[in-house]
Amino acid sequence: MNASTGHGASVRIENCGKTFADGTRALEPATLDIESGETLVLLGPSGCGKTTMLRIIAGLEAPDAGGRVLFDDRDVTRLPIERRNVGMVFQSYALFPNMSVAENIGYGLKIRGVAMAERDKRVAELVALTNITGLENRRIDQLSGGQRQRVALARAVAIRPSILLLDEPLTALDAALRERLRGELNRLLRALGITAIYVTHDQAEAMELGDRIVVMRKGAIVQIGSPREIYFAPQSRFVAEFIGAANIIEGAVEDGHLVLTGGRQPVGGQPSLSTAIAMIRPETIAVVDAADATLSGMIDSVSFIGDRQRLIVSGASAKPITVDAPNTLQTRVGERIGLRIAPEAVRLLPPEN
Amino acid sequence: MRDRLIFAGQLLFTLLVAAFLVVPAGLSMAAGVTENYFRGIRSGLTLRWVVQVWELYADTIGLSFLIAFATLAVTLTAGVPAAYALYVRGGRLARVIEEIITLPLAIPGLAIALALLLTYGGLSNFRRSWLFILVGHVVFTMPFMVRSVLAIFATLDIKTLDEGAASLGASPWRRFREVIVPNAVPGILAGSLMVVTLSLGEFNLTWMLHTPLTKTLPIGLADSYASMRLEVASAYTLIFFVMIIPLLVAMQMFADRETAR
Fold first, then answer.
1. Which residues of chain A neighbour B163 with C-beta distances below 8 Å?
2. Are A134 and A272 part of one and the same domain?
3. Is the whole-model pTM more than 0.90?
4. Given an 8 Å threshold on Cβ–Cβ distance, is B166 in contact with A159?
5. What is the ipTM of this complex?
6. Any idea which fold B58-260 has?
């Protein structure tokens, strides 16, 4: 691809914490390695420290004493953002209203002293790459939200940054557009092969875009893993509930079974504790005849969603269980059904402290 | 019918209020071109008083414009970068400094003048020059410049624009020149308009700081009211109007055009 970047640098942040002047701790000291060419997503609810971590990597915030940021093993902790050669896409896009679309995209090249002809060529490449042909001479206030997002991305990539930083770039858009741009962004990031760090609170974005996801909460990293690991093997109740839908069930453990109000549910592995907290994803539960299952309950409600239907089943455990059933299944409220769950679909979570 | 009556009543009231304000101004300007004010317009029209004022006070008009534009130059070169630094840095220190800059709004001009006299009155060359008045005007008008620029920074989210430019490799000076200032033009113009008009009309401070050789237009005006014929003082007012109104209109039009762009 001719719009390729120089190369993707690897990033290491070492012991980076952030305490603001008023004493609030935005980020607990964290250490994290990001491989060259990898797309890493920082995911968490607002106030979890993900944006602070991104800003430390960008050079917009300095970490507390003792923290270090390294790009390709080179210490950049003391370099301001303008000397780090990073591309950044801001949530509000930060496009310059006093410049046209083409001038915005070419600004970083102008700063770098790239000759006019070369600059125009590069701008044309990026305009084509981000599907904004025909908008080159528009002013920023003449663009829609989605167009602004593309210009912001083109501008950040134009300088061939060694790292691309994206701070909730799709949050300001409506749902349908967000989904479409998410797909485009994903293809673009793969095509560029650039190291990208992507901040979001949207788990669907994190799943689709991330090679790895870092789940954060209250200024600390709670789990790092591939989207599949995070989804299927959450290590805490917070991660289980934050990513996708999850049933969290508590019960006593008796020779490899969870003892619940609506029956017994076999559990994989050898649980050593006498009680356990388990996570079961709604789509791993099969609806069967009540007589054929060790666990049964009563249908409380049925929501038809289109590609599936969501049942709320009570009486199986202390709390109602959510089940995603095929959209063709005939069900009615009040019906008694059996729930069949494979032992390996029951994920035991560590006890809460 | 009833609607028309209400409308007529409102129109009449508006016209009365307008007349209350406009008539004195009109009378004053008319007096400036009347042969003898006490005998009224019947005594004949003349430009004699205007010529006399021009001969006596032309230098005060020149000095007023010199000081006004020098004040503008200082508030622009110091105030705009200061506002940028205050806004982008943020934090408690920035807020304290902003308050200090704003303080002259709350302190009577006479008190500021007194403080300047007490502190720098001994430097006689400085005391005698128009630069002394300039210092007073800068202290007095700086908050207006800084505030209007800060206001536009806030509406534009200039901090994010600054970070955006920085992420593309621009140095602070380049960001200021190529991104911050061009986008803050409407606020800078609004501030400039206020600085120039406030400086041209400033009396309190200037009255304390002036010397017989450094009189500005409002000081000359007060002087002529106190010691000249009413017609002379009125002619002076007329000149003031004629000079300042076109300037204000021109600056306002320029500001509107920039804002609309």
1. 60, 81, 88, 90, 94
2. no
3. no
4. no
5. 0.85
6. MetI-like fold (1.10.3720)
